[in-house]
Write a structure and sequence with these properties.
Elements (H helix, E strand, L loop, with lengths): L1 H39 L9 H10 L16 H5 L13 E13 L17 E6 L11 E5 L1 H8 L7 H8 L3 E10 L23 E11 L16
Antiparallel strand pairs: 1-2, 1-4, 2-3, 4-5
Length: about 230
């Protein structure tokens, strides 16, 4: 009985090791598949609906806003100001905002990226706030790095992977520049547009998406740089 038990245990161990080894090529294949999927993903993603396809095209912009594209009235303070902000800004404009990084994390599996799964092939969500002490999601503005822009930055020797951005940005004050986007799919979850009783995890639907430039600041910027009309 003891010998049979030993044989059974050895068999289970060997079987488990073989099973683990067998999963490795599958994991590698998934990464390779994601790379190929993203490379072949059109600007509309794999969305079927007209509205979502149009939204995805805005998310996938690769051009950098010119100084003339930047709306000087857009600041983090102006973005989180209460009230229905559906028409507050213009998606044809860019913006530069400054804020404290409350969190950095991998975005969801989305149609814009043709439902890729690996972190390297998904957006990076960066959550900005004006008050680091509150830890209040309803004050957050979401700014995003797309995998397409990440790859562009990588070709220039700049690492915008989610892991690196989390290490370098979390708990720091930053300045980000990019395109304004009204991510309408999140209207029910934003404080400025949600209905009563909804689960709120952001101040506004408006985002900087995609981010085209960012820098870490030495500390909290002067108040007049985070208020409406700064620089006027």
């Amino acid at each position: 009985m003891a010998l049979a038990s030993i044989r059974s245990t050895v068999s289970l161990i060997v079987g488990g090791l073989l099973g683990a080894v067998a999963t490795l090529p599958v994991a590698r294949a998934t990464v390779a598949d994601d790379a190929q999927i993203l490379a072949n993903c059109p600007a509309v993603g794999d969305a079927k609906g007209t509205n979502v396809r149009a939204l995805n095209t805005l998310k996938r912009r690769m051009t950098v806003p010119t100084p003339g594209d930047i709306d000087p009235n857009v600041t983090l303070r102006a973005m989180v100001a209460p009230g229905d902000d559906t028409t507050r800004w213009d998606e044809k404009r860019g913006a530069t905002i400054e804020g404290y990084v409350a969190d950095v994390k991998v975005g969801g599996v989305e149609s814009v990226n043709c439902h890729t799964h690996g972190p390297a092939y998904r957006d990076t969500h960066i959550e900005l706030t004006l008050d680091p002490t509150k830890n209040d999601e309803t004050t957050y503005v979401i700014v995003e790095v797309t995998p397409q822009v990440r790859q562009e930055m990588s070709s220039k020797g700049v690492d915008w992977s989610t892991r690196t951005l989390r290490t370098s940005l979390l708990g720091r004050w930053v300045r980000v520049t990019g395109w304004l986007l009204f991510d309408v799919e999140h209207k029910p979850e934003a404080r400025n547009t949600a209905s009563r009783g909804a689960h709120i995890w952001r101040a506004t639907v408006w985002e900087i998406h995609p981010i085209t430039a960012m820098e870490v600041l030495p500390g909290k910027p002067p108040v007049n740089q985070t208020s409406p009309g700064a620089g006027k």
